[in-house]
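Final paragraph of the annual report: two paired records, presented back to back.
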Amino acid sequence: MTWTILVLIVGIALYLFGGLLFKQDGKKPSTKIMLAHKSIKMLAIILVAGSVCRLYVPYYMTSVNPMILQEMINSMQEQQNAEKNKAIRSFVRDNTDVMVADAPVMGKQDAKKTIFVWTDFSCPYCRRVHGELDRVLKNRDDVRVVVKNFSIHGPLSDGPAKAVIAAKLQSPEKSAKLVDMLMTRNYYTQDDLKDQSKIAEKVEKNVMKMAEEAGLDTAQLKQDMDGEVVARELANVRDLAQRFEITGTPFLIIGEEAFPGAIPYEQINNALDK
């Protein structure tokens, strides 16, 4: 701002007094002097005009018409989203089988339309979007939801994420049931959080109770939770999150379009019908 004001002052000074920079021997200025005067005038006009524009534009954008800033931001975001969706489309088309292989799936395993959701069982927004996805599955039979467990809250996330992935080795249906139970019930209490050194143990104990209720063999489940399949799926989740620039949950890919955040039922349905 200071430099802009200085340039404006210089421009005005040149316009008013620039002619004094050149000495004139006679009454009539020479052609060179006249050209020099015109050049100085032109330079002064450019400096003044540029400075005024630079001073006025921020004032116009912040005080006169602040909505233009929002429009610019929205336009940039739309362009960025378009580029991201283009990259997602290309990858999902070629790698759907790998993305689905070890992940828990809700709905028909062979449904025509797929929703991928990066989620965390301890995330309240993920629980909200789970309810919207459950509503979609109850009202449509052409959709499956592939659950990519993005374990980001340490011991509150790790045990449940491993359990639902391992559960698929026993039964895709029981795995989906366990996902729903963990999303709709509390698997830890505020008292559990008081002793952070034992929270992982308490969470796993509560998860195992739900797993047994879902009809799973908990001894086998515990063994599979530390196995190769679970490790591979968690690595796949992290790798895809990095590829798609996913930094939080929930994050949905519906068809070939990305939706960060807990979007509502209507928006999910509209995306499926595109």
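The closing record of the year follows.
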Amino acid sequence: MPKLPVVSGSEAVKALQRLGFAVVRQKGSHVILRQDRYGCVIPNHREIKTGTLAGILKQAGVSAEEFIAALH
């Protein structure tokens, strides 16, 4: 597994949208995304810690490689 980059919440949302996720709603600083049966909650912060990002990707069913490719 490649090392996860440090990204902001908005960058993570954009990358997941490129992978087919759609924004369902937002409550406060948390954005809820959904794709078919997978869903995830992204904190819309300036910086997401790598452990938090790893949990988000696991929740979304996305590999680190797919996520890194979608960032660029």
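The first strand starts at residue 22 and ends at 27. This concludes the annual technical report; the extension proposal builds directly on these records.
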